[in-house]
Amino acid sequence: MKYIQVKMMALLICLMATVNSNAQRVASSPDYIKALTSEWEGERFDDGRPKVSDALLSRLKKIRIEEAWGYLRQRGFNNQYEGGWKIIHPEGVMTGRVVTAQYVPLRPDLKEYVKLQGAKEKRDTIGGSNSWPIEILVNGDVYVADGYGRIIDGTLIGSNLGNAIYANSKNGVVFDGGVRDLGGLLEIEGFNGWYRDEDPSYLQEQMLTTINAPIRIGRATVLPGDVVLANRHGTIFIPSHLVAQLVISSEVVALRDEFGFQRLREKTYTAGQIDTRWTDEIKADFLDWLKKYPDAKLPMTRKELNDYIQNSRYYQP
Questions:
Q1: Record keywords: Lyase included (predicted)?
Q2: Are residue 228 and residue 281 in the same domain, yes or no?
Q3: Are residues 103 and 203 in the same domain?
Q4: Rounded Cα distance, 270 and 244, in Å
Q5: What pLDDT, on a 0 to 100 scale, did the predictor assign at position 9?
Q6: Residue 3 has what pLDDT?
Q7: What range does the domain containing 95 cover?
Q8: What is the mean pLDDT of residues 229-257?
Q9: Euclidean distance between CA atoms 89 and 17, whole angstroms
């Protein structure tokens, strides 16, 4: 308990210091992002965001939203899901490392300050500030913007910026707001987007305030460096330090389901036996079933699976 208190105090001091140093910036400093994501122990980008591996991002695409949601809820992360989207390509699945941006209704004096501060940060002040988050995207990023649900006069991108986003990230967007020129966005091969609605108006009553700071997307809280899983069933934002364990835990749940469905078809067990806490007999049967499961079909390596089972109290006698 004392160790946890000391760690929390150190984190609070670090956050207070980095908030003060970050207060005048448009884009968060690397130190601030590191403080926000202090539980991540792996590699980071130069901007401070956790660099979750491409391999994990690929595996995450096969995880169901419900499984990811359940894993996070068990660990106290109750506000990471948002639904109710329109989707450019509804059949698509997107995962990636989050770059955040926050927009607010236009206020001239604040807009002027943001423009001057952007110039100090060597950002392009000739065009609109809505291009600034796009300029920093790298391969595997997902641009996530809080547009507070605005559609008319708040369309964050059209086909030009959509092409720029895909050129930099080879990925797509999650926008709590509107888009324009949907026909052009549909033509960008490989690009996808989750958005509220489309409108022919262009961005004129909305302005950028921050890049890579905490934002709200509907009922979800999103940090820079989170990993997003987006599909036709919604979007879920996963803290970087939980991604690896969430993925393998969800993969084992999928294997459990496959085993259960097979045994139900074979009439080995009743639905009641499978749909409740398993007996030691069923657990043993499942573990034996796993040993015979083809390595080539496993979503993880055999070693990862064995390590997970060995460290899981549920499967121990």
A1: no
A2: no
A3: yes
A4: 33
A5: 53
A6: 47
A7: 79-238
A8: 97
A9: 43
Tell which of 180, 212, 238 closes a domain: 238
Paired tokens of 5: 């208190």
Specify if 61 maps to a domain. Answer: no
Whether this prediction's pTM lies above 0.90 is answered by no
Q: Which of 6-10, 68-72, 124-128 has the lowest mean pLDDT?
A: 6-10
75-112 pLDDT, tens digit per residue, is 999 999 999 999 999 999 999 999 999 999 999 999 99
pLDDT at residue 18 greater than cutoff 70: no
Within-domain flag for 68: no
Pairing label, strands 227-231, 94-105? antiparallel
Other CB atoms within a 10 A radius of the CB of residue 205 amount to 11
Give, in order, the Cα–Cα distances in Å from 136 to each of 75, 124, 125: 32, 12, 15
Same domain for 221 and 91: yes
Q: How far is CA 28 from the centre of its chain?
A: 18
Residue 192 CA to residue 62 CA, distance in Å, equals 17
Half-sphere exposure of 48 (CA within 13 A, CB side): 19
* C-alpha span between 165 and 190 (Å, rounded): 11
